[in-house]
Amino acid sequence: MLEFAILGLLHESPMHGYELRKQLTTKLGAFRAAISYGSLYPTLRRLQAAGCITEESVAPAADAPLLTNRRSRVVYKITAEGKERFQELLGSSGPETFDDPGFGVHFAFFARTDSATRLRILEGRRRRVEERREGMRDVLSRAAERLDAYTLELQRHGLDACEREVRWLEELIAHERSGRPPQVTIPSNPPPDPPER
Q1: Residue 8 in contact with residue 86, Cβ under 8 Å?
Q2: Does domain 2-58+72-95 have CATH number 3.40.50.720?
Q3: Region Disordered: which residues (predicted)?
């Protein structure tokens, strides 16, 4: 999945490692923890060995301040083979795209994915989350009396999260079937609670 995300970002523009890591964290933030250099650079080396990306050294600007790092930077660029590989990964909609990491990465590039593939991934993800939800309901119905209050609350929280995600996926599926993009609303910060008296 990291390979897919890197190719997707480099398809947009060449980047050096620091910028690539920052963009990956921004793009995948809700679905994946921060990307470490320990996973980024080995993946970049594998992509380079496969001919999917190239690197070139870019000299710093001549007018860079003396106190800044004046070493040349390595910039990564996608190749024609990399663009083909990205398109191949973009069109995949197998079971690996229904799990948390796979779904998150594919969803981040949905704007470049065809509608039929988006719909298959959304429906597969919904089935996966519904299965998880039913498993949690089963655990709660069979073991609720044996669980302490905090474990029970954690299970209830997980069940609520699954139910919210199923509703969200159903909305996305309805939009996809109608041919309309989802309506995005950015929540505003709620007003602070009044001070207690």
Answers
A1: yes
A2: no
A3: 177-197
Cα pseudo-dihedral 174, 176, 180, 186, rounded to 10: 80
Q: Give the amino acid at 138.
A: D
DSSP string, the chain: -HHHHHHHHHHH--EEHHHHHHHHHHHHTTTSPPPPHHHHHHHHHHHHHTTSEEEEEEPPPTT--TTS--S-EEEEEE-HHHHHHHHHHHT--SGGGTSHHHHHHHHHTGGGS-HHHHHHHHHHHHHHHHHHHHHHHHHHHHHGGGS-HHHHHHHHHHHHHHHHHHHHHHHHHHHHHHT------PPPPPPPPPPP-
CA angle 85-9-169, nearest 5°?
85
Which residues of the chain, if any, have pLDDT below 70? 30-34, 60-72, 187, 189-197
| CA 68 to the chain's CA centroid | 33
Asked whether the whole model's pTM tops 0.90, one would answer: no
